[in-house]
Amino acid sequence: MVQFEFQRGKYTSVRYARFADDLVILIDSHPRHDWLMKAVEKRIREEMAKLRVEINEEKSRIVDVAKGGSFSFLGFEYRRILSRNRKWRAYYAPKLKKRMALLAKLREIFRQNVSQPVGQIIEQINPILRGWVNYFAIGDSSGCFSLVRDWVEKKIRLHLMRARERAGFGWRRWSKKWLYEKLGLHKDYRLRRPWSLPKAKSAAVVS
């Protein structure tokens, strides 16, 4: 991940983040920076042409988050929301597509191991959950994590009850503590601080 900032005085007017061939450019929404929109696009196209790299026009777009727009970058969805103290702030959480892909992968493991001991299923899903959570454990992912955790827990309970030829989820039969401590189901869904990024470089003016 590489980040850069372009400043004029003490105010940051342009920021961009790049990972491999994915690039996001953020421009201050103040009217005095309207000219930057065209200037930045022109500069990018010039630089890409020098490198003989074609811009994917279908995936490239301009988004105004102040008007309810949102965009995706590296698996996260970004948009603007009002905070509890009624101030606008950035919101970013795992894209719905990423969450659905995770659940589909886990669902297939449950399907393939329907007659196997629950421990065998947990051995397979724990590394997947651990890796997925570690990647998305920043920003506003807690709500998504709760949905994933509850979904997995219910699937484990259904598997246990099916093995006993019983209906339901076994809420009274097995406690949450038993599922996570006795069976060893992945339980760490805590958010973490953003990973360390290279210190942003700055320039006085975009030319």
Polypeptide structure, described:
Helix 2 packs antiparallel against helix 3 and helix 2 runs parallel beside helix 4. The protein has a 4-stranded mixed sheet with strand order 3-2-1-7, with no helix packed on it. Strands 4-5-6 form a 3-stranded antiparallel sheet. The C terminus is likely disordered. The longest helix has 22 residues. By secondary structure, the protein is of the alpha+beta class. Helix content is 40%, strand content 20%. The chain is elongated, with a radius of gyration of 23 Å. Strand 2 and strand 3 form a beta hairpin.
What features would you highlight for this structure?
single chain; 207 residues; alpha+beta; 4-stranded mixed β-sheet; 3-stranded antiparallel β-sheet; 40% helix; elongated; disordered C terminus
Q: What topology does this entry show?
A:
Layout: E1 2-8, E2 11-19, E3 22-27, H1 34-50, E4 71-73, E5 76-82, E6 88-94, H2 96-112, H3 118-136, H4 142-163, H5 176-182, E7 201-203
Parallel strand pairs: 1-7
Antiparallel strand pairs: 1-2, 2-3, 4-5, 5-6
Helix pairs in contact: 2-3, 2-4
In spatial order, strands of the major sheet run: 3-2-1-7
What is the total tally of β strands?
A: 7
Tell me the distance between the termini: 24 Å
Name the beta content range.
15-25%
Question: Total number of helical segments?
Answer: 5
Cα-based radius of gyration, to the nearest Å: 23 Å
Order of helices and strands: EEEHEEEHHHHE
Helix proportion: 25-40%
Largest sheet: 4 strands, mixed
Low-confidence stretches: 195-207
Oligomeric status: single chain
Mean pLDDT: 86
Indicate the overall shape: elongated
Structural class: alpha+beta
